[in-house]
Amino acid sequence: MNSLKRIREGWDALEAEKTRLLRQMTVQESVAQYLELQRALEPQYLQTEALFRPDRMAYLAELQRRLLRLAEWMKEQRG
Cα dihedral sign for 70, 73, 74, 75? Predict the structure, then answer.
């Protein structure tokens, strides 16, 4: 139990360091890192697509609904 407590206590410092490092990255470095992760994880995505595709599609549909509501709200705010 003590090791779990130590991990939780150090988590905030880890998150702060991660945020600091991400802020130092350029857009090009961020995109390169994203593409590297995509290449590394793509085989797993393909293997599990049948299991997770319905959830991902539902999430994307919900995201689109939210973005539409946001766009409508922003249009109303402009007058």
Answer: positive
Q: Does the global pTM surpass 0.90?
A: no
Considering only CA atoms, which of 53, 36, 54 is closest in space to residue 45?
53
| Radius of gyration for the chain, computed over Cα atoms and rounded to the nearest angstrom | 19
Is the pLDDT assigned to residue 76 strictly greater than 90? yes
Give per-residue pLDDT as tens, 5-29: 777 788 888 888 888 888 898 999 9
Please answer whether residues 51 and 44 qualify as being in contact, where contact means their C-beta atoms are separated by less than 8 angstroms. no
Centroid of chain to Cα 10: 22
Taking the CA of residue 77 as centre, how many other CA atoms within 13 Å lie in the half-sphere pointing to its CB?
A: 6
Helix, strand, coil percentages in the chain from 3-state DSSP, rounded to 5 = 95, 0, 5
